[in-house]
Each structure stands twice: as C-alpha cells, then as structure tokens.
Write a structure and sequence with these properties.
mainly alpha; Fic-like fold; Arc Repressor Mutant, subunit A; 2 domains; three-stranded antiparallel sheet; 7 strands; 56% helix; 6% strand; globular
Length: 397
Amino acid sequence: MFSEVNWPALDWEDRSWQPRIPPSLVSAAVRERHAGPYRAAVVPHIAELTPRLSGEVLALSEDASAEIARFDAELGSEVAPFASVLLRSESASSSMIENLTSGAKAIALAELGSTDKRNATEIVGNVGAMRAALALADRLDAEAILTMHAALMGAVHPGMAGTWRDEQVWIGGTSFGPHAASFVPPHQEHVPSLVDDLVCFARRTDVPLLARAAIAHAQFETIHPFPDGNGRTGRALINAMLRGHGLTKNVTVPVSAGLLTDTTSYFDALTAYRTGDPAAIVVSLAEASFEATANGRQLVRDLHAIRAGWDNAIKARRGAGAWRLADLLLRQPVVDAATVAAELGLAPQNTQRVVAALADSGVLTEFTGFRRNRMWQATEVLTALDDFAARAGRRMR
C-alpha cells in the first residue's frame, strides 16, 4: 500500500573506524580528529512512499515534461543525425559537473582511441554509460545500473567498474577518514537492499515521471553505491527513466547541461532532499530541463547553419562521397582515413579523394602535419560544440 507522506529525512548510525592509511604517516592532530566511531547515514526505503508536493511544483514538473517531449519529437523527426551529438554533449556536461572538463576536439580524439587526455577518455566512458542506460531503459533494475557503471568506468577504473562498493566512502573532509566529511553515505552493507528499493520506486507509475526521476536520482546519489562515478551514473539513470517510460523516444535530452548551469543549487537540492524536502530536487531537474532544451535547440540551429554553409562550399557532384562525409562530420567532427572508409563503406584507395574534396572546400582541416596517420577536423562543428558547453556553464536567457 502506497502512502503520501512528508518525505523522511536521513537518520544516522555510529560505526567503528579503522584507518586505511598507516597512522605513522599523519600527524597526531589528524589521528586525534579521526579517533573513535564515525556517523554514517541511515537512508530510508522509499519504494512505497509517495512525496507530498505542492501544486506549483507539480505544475512546473509537468510543464518541463511537456517541453522535453516537444524537444524529443521535433529533433527526432527533423534532425536524427544530431542525436549522437546531443548524447555526446550530455555526457560531456555530466562529466563537467564533476570537473572532468575537455574540449570537443579532445573528446572526439578519445572516441578514435586516443588516451592522451584522461578527462576526455572518462567523458567517452560517460557516452558509453549513457548508451548502456538507454539500451536498458525498458528493463531498469540493479543489474542495469551495474551495466551503466561498467560502461562508464571500465576504461579508467576496471577494478571497480560494475560492482557495488565494498567499503565506506565519504564526501569532503580528508582522505584519512570520514569524521570531518560533509556527507557520509550509508555503510556498504546497506547498498544492495537500498538499490533494490530504489529500483522499485523508479518503476512506479503513480508518481509523475519527472518528479519520480528527480527523486530517484537524489536517492541514488544519497546511497552513493559506487566508489566513484556515482554522479555520472545517477544522471544516466535520469535519461534511462525518461526513455523507459516513454517521455523521450528519439534523442537524449541534455539535462546534465541544464544542471551544470547552477551547480550550487543542484548540490543544495541534494542536501535538502536528505533533510526531508524532495521538492527542491524536483524543481532543480525541471529548471534544468528548460535550460537543456533551450541550449540543445541553439546547438541544433548552429549545426544546421554550418551544414547549410557547406552546401555552397562543396564543389563535388551530388551523390558523391563528399556529401556523405559532410553529414558524418556533424556527429563525428574529427576523422582519420580508417574512420572515413569504415563509416562510408569506401575502399581505402577512394578515401583520400573524398577527404580532399572537403579539405579543398575549407570544410576539413588537417591538423597533425604528418605524412602518415593523418587526421582532419571540422573546425566549425568543434566550435559549435565548445560553445554549447560554454553556454551550459552559465544561465541561458
């Protein structure tokens, strides 16, 4: 039986602590601050609870849901090639919340296999997590969440990828112990049952979808079930819920790009949730959705304009491979010969001619200076993607 309630706040329990760092390596003052038990969160189960939200908050949530659905329908029917651009942009924005910043070019290079930029490699992992989330959206369960995390962390932290944490984690404070942390999630023994409870709540249909996704996200971040990658996995969970329950069907709405516009409010909303106020995170996600769709629409307008400008610049005959390469560059703005051959189904000996046609037109620029293993970039597209990220870092009007 579901019951409508004022949302429960966290409780706390004392836990004994054994330092992981040899005490001889830290000062006596540090040892003293971290002596004795610490307090870990006791997170309420929510599967059968219904949040009591004001009419104003529910109306804002429904307006945001309608805007997301419009965005998905318009972009899905008109500009399907931009779906992967929005997916990459959402993944980059989600990573930026955790200060994993990289330019569009570094991300594109990482997608081609470069490991020179660790942040870019992690952002590409976030693209994988988002794709995994969407693929599993119709059967969201604990195993699906583990799969998302494995896709996210497998390339950079394979030892922890796709497994629940088996130790206490904390946010803020020092690396020596959790005593001075700003937040200590629940003890690891509680994680599996809390995730199962969260999944049951996420599957419900009697709580409006955007409000449910916001609360599920806040509950996930409070459980903090992984040693690392919780924020990005938790934001992938939002998109999985939107897709799994039919609000989006065609594209990934870059809601993390909306959350990025005011990270202080976002983290404040998570804190409010833990004190028993779910309204703040619902409002935060609703406002982020409006910010995200406005920013996404601007990105698509910019890409449309770039592509239209190329129509006048490209001199190849209609139907030639150069035109198909132009379309490819909108979603993959850095390419090498192998990528062009594979994506366009060309014989290797024909690839250079296609690339040359766009280079001669000013669409592509070679940037390695090598005679072999050369690479080309569509500078205008990279600029549009970097502009999208820059707008996500400030309020759009």
